[in-house]
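Hi W., the adenosine-5'-diphosphate complex you wanted:
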Amino acid sequence: MSSPQAATNEPRRYQLFIGGEWVDAESGKTFTTPNPATGAPLAEVAEADKADVERAVAAARQAFEGKWSKLSARDRGRLLYKLAQLIEAHAKELAALETADNGKPIRESSYIDLPQVVENFEYFAGFATKIEGETIPVPGQFFNYTLREPLGVCGQIIPWNFPLLMAAWKLAPALAAGNTVVLKPAEQTPVTALELGKLIQEAGFPEGVVNIVPGYGETAGAALAAHPGIDKIAFTGSTEVGKLIARAAADNLTKVSLELGGKAPNIVFADADLEQAVNGALMGIFYNQGQVCCAGSRIFLEERIKDEFLERFKAKAEKIKVGDPADKTTQMGPQVSEEQLNRIKGYVDIARQEGASVLTGGASPELDEQFRGGYFFRPTIFCDVNNRMRVAQEEIFGPVSSVITFTDEVDLIKQANETIYGLSAGIWTRDITRAHRFAREVKAGVVWINTYNMFNAASPFGGYKQSGYGREMGRHAIELYTQIKSVWVDLSGKPIGWFGN
Ligand code: ADP
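Structure:
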C-alpha cells in the first residue's frame, strides 16, 4: 500500500495508522464516509476511540524520545521535502479523492488545495534548519542563550472543509520543529489524510512520528484533547468545539492553539472597481461552497452602489455552475453532509422570520437523477439584513451571504467589529488611505484589500477574539510548535560570593 488508490466505485477500506503500522480499531468498529455528491458510500474506515488514541499517543511518545529526536534538522527537512515531492507526484489521485470525499469541485482540489499542500510541506521543509535560539546581552560575567526546542507529542484535530490542506498546515510545522503527532481527521472526510499516511510511510519517516486516528469528535477527538500524555493540542473547527478543547486542555495545562469560526465583513465602497468587487464577493462567499472559516459572509455595501452591485452580484451568482464536483467545469459542488445542508436550510427560515429577503437561491438546485441524493444548495443572497440579525451574527458555513448597507465609514467600522469573531476582513476601495485605516481598525487576524481568500505558506493566518489564538503558517507556526529554554553560563570561573564567603 504505497501509493494512493485510484478513485473507483467500490467502497474503499482504511485502517488506523499507529506506530508505523496499519491496524484495526481495538473495538473492531468502522464507519462509512459517503460521497456528498451522491450520498453513496465512498469508504469504510476503522473507527478510533479512546483505546486507539491511547496507543497512538504512546507510539508518538516513543518516537519522540527515540529516533526522531536523534535525527538532524537537515534530515527532518529532507523527509518533509520528500513527502512534498511524493504528494506532488500523486496530486491527481489525491485531488480526485478529496473531491469524492468532501464534494469540492475538482478544479479547486486540483488547482488550489493540492498545490497549497505541497507548498506548505516545501516551505516547512526549508524551515527545519532555520529554527534557532538567540544570545541575550545580559550584564556581568554571564553568557545567556536560548534553545528553541520542540514541545513533544502534539495532538492535532482537523476539520472537513480542506481535509488535506488542514493536515498540511498542522503537520508540516510540527514535524519541521521536531515534534511527533497524533492527527485526527474529521469523520466526514478521513480519506486523504489516510492516503497521506501511506506517503509518510513511503517517504521514510520513522515509525510513530505521525499517527492517524480517524474517528468521531466526541470520542476520538475528546480523548485526544483530554489526554495527559500530549504536550500540545492544535485544533481547527467551530468555536463551540474550540471551547470544549480549551476546557479539556486546561485540566492538564496542555498548550493549545485554535483556529475557529468567522463572520467576516467584506466591504465595498462606492469608489471601488465594481467588477472586481463583485467577483471578490463571489469568491468570498461561494468558494468551497461557502464552507470556509474566513468566508466573506457579511457583505457591507455603500448605500449608493447597492442597486448596481446587487444586480451584477445576483446575475453572476445565478450563473455559477452547481453540480457534479468531478466535472472540470463545475464551480460549486455539494455541501459536505446532510447535516450541514439542513443547517443551511434552517438559516434560510431564520432569515425570513427575521425579515430579510432572499434575492436569489434559498433552496437546493434541480439536478440529474444521479445527484438527487447529494447535498447541493444554490448560491444564496439575503438582502435587507441588519447586523444584529442572527444571519449576520452566526456562522452559517454555507453559500449564503448577508447583505448590509452603510453610509458612514465610522459606523461601518463599528458594525464590522460588532461580532464575536475576528478571523478575517475584506475591503474594496481605490482610496489607499481608507484601506489602510480600515486594516488598522478592524479586529481581525487577516485583512484583504481589493482581493479575497489569498493564502501563502509564508504568511500567518489566525484569529482575533473568538476566532481563536495562535497563528499558523509562516515563522509564527514554528513558534506554536516550539518552546524556549534560557541557558545561563558563568564565565568568571569564580565562586558565587553572595552566601559563599
Ligand atoms: P463542524 O461543526 O463544522 O463539523 P467541528 O468543530 O464539530 O466542525 O469539527 C471539527 C473537528 O473537531 C472534527 O475533526 C471533529 O471530529 C472534531 N470534534 C468535534 N467535537 C469534538 C470534541 N468534543 N472534542 C474533540 N474534537 C471534536
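The radius of gyration is 24 Å.

W.
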